[in-house]
Structure formats: structure tokens, C-alpha cells
């Protein structure tokens, strides 16, 4: 109630810099919500009037500005359960089945979000916004809402700039040196790798245009009243905020309306609870922290992987803190402590953390670099393999594909990572790059969102490439024309040849 009153007063006092911002993160996956919540809270703290639509409820809403939540309750819960079952198997799914699965996940998420009574209420309220920020995750059907709300469209890419955003803003992403985000390829790819990368990127593009967009278009047309047409909404992007940064990701070209804000969700470390503080302080040999992230349920891993990991960790002289979703593991070595929830960011800040064993998710990777902690990545799916490959290339970590984990490989990697000072030094070096920015990433995001509003959609930043069909973008029509012109002089020659040949045959017959 008090918060509501403060919000109302601020609304009335709203200065010219206070804008109405709609943040839509419909994906029912915790790590996506974390990014949406961090952005919405950051904007509210900067004094804006923020409405966030997401699948989860915010535990500690910000005090400043105004922060209104529209929680997509109900259906998202079973979507979430459906999503989190069998994640370990996801890694071995072939790329084309994975694409199909993400398509159907996207259709389900968008349809359920747009149909949700609370969201429908907002859609039909007549309310207008200055900007609409939406995550980019198989939810393009949401974008025509920007037209409906009379708002400039801003996209937040939850991972590195990829196919899903590049085409919308005309950002170059050559298959020759930028691996698809699902591949664990090095930056300098072999011929075979480049070829497979081209195949995957082309298949993804074809899937996007021939399968995914038509269905999203239908959903949007059905559920958004004044959405104009889908395509003009889709390609009318004012700004792309990328949750990526050169300290962690491969450097790539970015058109002027793309900005790196990777790590903006990270808060300065808070004091640990007494339980964790004592555990960390008393670890004379240091601590190996182990977490497979917020979505994967570690207890669903196969018995042989579990044994291999327990055996390897049990041999360490370090203590191990393992995020585990059950109370108990049989035959647990004594140096391992289990916890269902761990304040990861605060824990990584503790000087006794020697190593982070991670699934290689982007949020965990950004957090470990923020604190300069080396990693052993055990990637499973999505962009985890790519992040893991980058960590190894940058020399602050090593990786073993989760599907290939054995006790021997774990022993070898752990021994190497814990004894070789190079990994820590490289993690510190990366951390220095992470922190060396003109302003904090959340302040940068706020600045650019306000900039878009001040300059009425900032159309002056957009490159023209996104308006061209693919054959024009790659100059294929020009190449065809050149070939045609080069062949043109040959045409009279060919006619002459045919005439001569005919006369010759005639002469022979006579
Ligand atoms: C709170 O919001 C106001 C604008 O309403 C802004 O001027 C002020 O700096 C904000 N305070 C903090 C702590 O961000
Ligand atoms: C495209 O975006 C600009 C700036 O946000 C806006 O002024 C314009 O109305 C939009 N056009 C369409 C067709 O949505």
C-alpha cells in the first residue's frame, strides 16, 4: 500500500524525464525473468514508471519510481514444468528437432501470454507507453503490441547477437567467423566447421521465415487489436540491448542501434548468511562451487554421471558446495555440502572460491567473470557449449560436454584448473575488461532507452540493410546482372556458330 502511494505521488510529480515503460518477458524460464526483472527494476530506480509482464512475481520490488507487475500466472507453471523435465537429454537432440521444439515452445508462450486475462485487460485498457522492451526468445508475435501501445520497440537479446535479432536490424553476422550460438566451435573455424555453421545458420533462417514467422503472425493477428501488420512491426526496431560483452563473448560487429549491456543484472555483493559465511571462511584450502543453474534439476542426471562427479569431487582437498535440488545424495563424500538455494553472486565474491563448476549458462559466465573466478564448464544445451568454448579459448576455464563426463576427465580437469595459476590470472584479466566501461551497464541501458524516447524512435541510427530482401542484401542480383552482361557479347557468337553449323550440315547432305 505504501509502495502504491509512493508510486502514485511519483507519478503525479513525474518530471519530463520520467517515462512510461512496458517490459515484456513472457518466457517461463527463471534466467529470462531475472533479466527482465533486473531491467525493469533498474528503470524504476532511475525514476521511470515501469510495468513488467512476466511469468514470475518479483520478491523485492524497487522503492523508487513506480513498478507495476502483471504476472502471467497459471498456465506458465505447467509450461515451466514441461520445460524443466528431461533437460539433460536436450543436449543430444539434433539441431533440427531442437529448432522444432523451440518453435512450438514459442507459439505456446506467446499464445498463452496474449490470452492471459490480466494481459488482455492491459491490452484493452487504452493505456499508452513511451517504449516497449521485449526479450528476444521465440516470441516475435508479441512485437506488434508496440504499435498497439503507440510505443517505440526495443528488443533485449538474452544472449549474444544472433540470427533472431541480426536480421531485424540488418546486423552482419558472417558464417565464416561467427559460429551459431548452439555450436561449441572456436572463433577460427576449420573448413568443415565453417561449412556446417553455414548449413545450420541457413536452416535456422529458413525455419524462421517459412515456419516460425507465419504462425506467430497468425497468433498476433488473432490476439492484438491494433497491431498493424506483423512485418512492419517486426522490422521497426529502435534499439537492441544485448546481454553480452567482449569480456565474455566473441567480439562481433554491431550496427549503431545495438548496445552491449552484458552483466547489467549483477548487483554489488551483499553479506552472506551466517551458514554460508562460516562454511566459506573455514575452508582453508578453498571452495569449489558447483551449480548447474536455475532451470536444470541436477537430481535428474543419470546415475553414472552422478557417481563420476561425486567420486571426482570427493578426492579434492578443497571443500565443495553443490547446488542440489534434493536433501540427500547417497554415499556423499564428507567434503561436499549440498544446498537447495545458494546466493550465487555473493558467494562468487568470497575470496576462498577457487573454482566454479557450471553448466556454462550466460548469466553464470558473466557473474564468474565479474568476480574473476575460473570455471570448469559442463555444458548441456542452448548457448552453453559456445560460452564454454569461449572460456577455454580465453584461458580462464576448461570444458567437458556434460554428455561426455567421466571420472577420469573430471579428475584431470579439476587437478589442472586448481593447480595451474594461469586460469585465475586470465579470469582476473577478463574481469578487469568487464569492469572497464565508461558507465555501469544498467546506466547504459537506461541512457539508451531514454535516448530512443527523446529522439522519437531514433530512426537515424538504423542501417538500411534490414529493408532489403536477402538476395539484395548479399548483392546476388548485382552478381547475376554482371554475369549476364559478361555473357552478352557471347550471344551473337553463339548465333553465328549455330548458323554455320546448320549450313555445314546442309552442304554435307547435298
Ligand atoms: C528516484 O527517482 C527520481 C525521479 O523520479 C530520480 O531523480 C532519483 O535520482 C531516483 N533515485 C535513485 C536513488 O535512483
Ligand atoms: C516505426 O517506428 C517509429 C519509431 O518508433 C514510429 O514512429 C513509426 O510509427 C513506426 N512505424 C510502424 C509502421 O510501426
> What ligands are attached or bound here?
2-acetamido-2-deoxy-beta-D-glucopyranose
Please indicate the percent range of residues in DSSP E strands (runs of 2 or more).
5-15%
- Determine the CATH superfamily of the largest domain: Glycogen Phosphorylase B
CATH architecture descriptor name of the largest domain: 3-Layer(aba) Sandwich
Number of strands: 13
Q: What spatial form do the alpha-carbon principal axes imply?
A: globular
Q: Biggest sheet, open or closed, and with what strands and sense?
A: 7 strands, parallel
Which ranges are low-confidence, i.e. pLDDT below 50, for 5 or more consecutive residues?
1-10
- Number of alpha- plus pi-helical segments: 21
The first-to-last residue Cα distance is 108 Å
CATH class of the largest domain: Alpha Beta
Give the spatial strand order of the biggest sheet: 3-2-1-4-5-6-7
Kindly report the average pLDDT value.
92
What level of helicity do the residues show? 40-55%
The domain count comes to: 3
Q: Over the alpha carbons, how many angstroms does the gyration radius reach?
A: 27 Å
CATH topology of the largest domain: Rossmann fold
Structural class: alpha/beta
Amino acid at each position: 500500500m505504501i509502495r502504491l502511494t509512493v508510486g502514485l505521488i511519483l507519478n503525479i510529480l513525474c518530471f519530463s524525464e520520467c517515462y512510461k515503460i512496458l517490459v515484456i518477458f513472457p518466457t517461463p524460464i527463471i534466467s529470462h525473468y531475472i533479466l527482465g526483472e533486473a531491467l525493469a527494476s533498474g528503470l524504476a530506480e532511475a525514476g521511470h514508471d515501469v510495468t513488467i509482464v512476466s511469468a514470475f512475481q518479483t520478491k523485492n520490488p524497487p522503492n523508487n519510481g513506480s513498478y507495476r507487475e502483471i504476472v502471467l500466472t497459471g498456465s506458465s507453471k505447467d509450461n515451466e514444468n514441461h520445460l524443466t523435465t528431461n533437460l539433460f537429454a536436450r543436449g543430444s537432440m539434433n539441431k533440427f528437432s531442437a529448432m522444432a521444439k523451440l518453435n512450438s515452445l514459442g507459439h505456446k508462450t506467446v499464445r498463452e501470454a496474449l490470452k492471459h486475462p490480466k494481459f488482455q485487460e492491459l491490452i484493452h485498457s487504452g493505456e499508452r507507453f513511451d517504449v516497449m522492451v521485449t526479450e528476444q526468445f521465440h516470441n516475435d508475435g508479441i512485437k506488434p503490441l508496440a504499435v498497439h501501445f503507440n510505443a517505440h520497440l526495443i528488443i533485449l537479446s538474452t544472449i549474444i547477437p544472433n540470427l533472431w535479432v541480426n536480421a531485424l536490424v540488418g546486423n552482419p553476422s558472417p558464417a565464416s567467423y561467427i559460429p551459431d550460438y548452439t555450436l561449441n566451435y572456436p572463433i577460427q573455424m576449420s573448413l568443415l566447421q565453417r561449412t556446417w555453421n553455414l548449413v545450420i545458420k541457413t536452416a535456422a533462417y529458413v525455419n524462421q521465415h517459412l515456419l516460425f514467422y507465419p504462425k506467430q503472425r497468425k497468433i498476433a493477428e488473432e490476439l492484438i487489436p491494433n497491431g498493424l501488420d506483423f512485418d512492419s512491426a517486426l522490422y521497426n526496431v529502435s534499439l537492441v540491448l544485448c546481454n553480452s560483452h567482449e569480456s565474455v563473448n566473441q567480439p562481433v560487429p554491431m550496427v549503431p542501434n545495438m548496445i552491449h549491456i552484458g552483466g547489467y543484472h549483477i548487483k554489488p555483493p551483499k553479506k552472506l548468511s551466517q551458514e554460508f559465511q562460516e562454511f566459506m571462511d573455514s575452508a582453508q584450502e578453498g571452495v569449489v562451487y558447483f551449480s548447474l543453474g536455475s532451470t536444470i534439476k541436477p537430481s535428474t542426471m543419470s546415475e553414472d554421471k552422478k557417481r563420476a562427479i561425486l567420486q571426482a569431487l570427493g578426492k579434492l582437498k578443497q571443500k565443495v558446495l553443490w547446488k542440489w535440488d534434493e536433501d540427500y545424495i547417497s554415499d556423499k563424500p564428507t567434503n561436499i555440502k549440498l544446498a537447495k538455494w545458494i546466493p550465487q553472486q555473493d558467494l562468487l565474491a568470497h575470496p576462498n572460491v577457487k573454482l566454479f563448476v557450471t553448466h556454462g549458462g550466460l548469466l553464470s559466465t558473466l557473474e564468474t567473470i565479474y568476480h574473476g573466478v575460473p570455471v570448469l564448464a559442463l555444458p548441456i544445451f542452448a548457448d552453453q557449449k559456445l560460452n564454454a568454448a569461449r572460456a577455454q579459448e580465453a584461458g580462464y576455464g576448461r570444458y567437458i560436454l556434460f554428455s561426455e563426463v567421466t571420472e577420469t576427465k573430471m579428475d584431470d580437469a579439476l587437478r589442472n584448473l586448481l593447480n595451474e595459476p594461469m586460469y585465475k590470472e586470465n579470469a582476473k584479466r577478463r574481469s578487469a575488461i568487464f569492469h572497464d566501461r565508461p558507465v555501469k551497464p544498467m546506466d547504459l541501458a537506461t541512457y539508451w532507452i531514454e535516448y530512443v524516447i527523446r529522439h522519437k524512435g531514433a530512426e537515424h541510427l538504423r542501417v538500411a540493410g534490414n529493408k532489403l530482401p536477402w538476395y539484395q542484401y548479399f548483392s546476388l542480383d548485382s552478381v547475376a546482372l554482371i554475369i549476364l552482361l559478361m555473357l552478352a557479347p557471347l550471344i551473337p557468337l553463339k548465333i553465328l556458330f549455330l548458323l554455320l553449323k546448320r549450313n555445314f550440315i546442309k552442304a554435307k547432305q547435298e
